[in-house]
Please model this.
Amino acid sequence: MISAPDRALLRDLARQVADIASQPVMAERRGLWMAHNRLEPGRPLVLVFPEGAWRELLPESALGCESAAAREMEAELRRRIYYWEHFRDDTVIERLWEVGPVLHVSDWGLTPRHIDSPQETGSWGFDPVL
Model:
């Protein structure tokens, strides 16, 4: 359950994202990407992927929501706003919020195992079950 203060903050951020998504430049960018995907000639399109740097660009301390679920939503909304305000690449900021399927995966008797990395941002290794 998302608290009323968290809900108010998320709605405000969602409103900002909707305003950004309704900018005419977003329709233009969408058209550029469609033409690019049809292999039509045009200007090179630029994308910025700060994947490993989000913890520096948008640290946990910058988030205002209390619950974990609300903080995840807030972080995604703030990323979209950050893209618009700072990167100005050819990313299309969408007003849609995708909700993934709810899945329950069974182990079928074998529990997958992994080996954690000693580094904070390191990847884990797969430990075969057989």
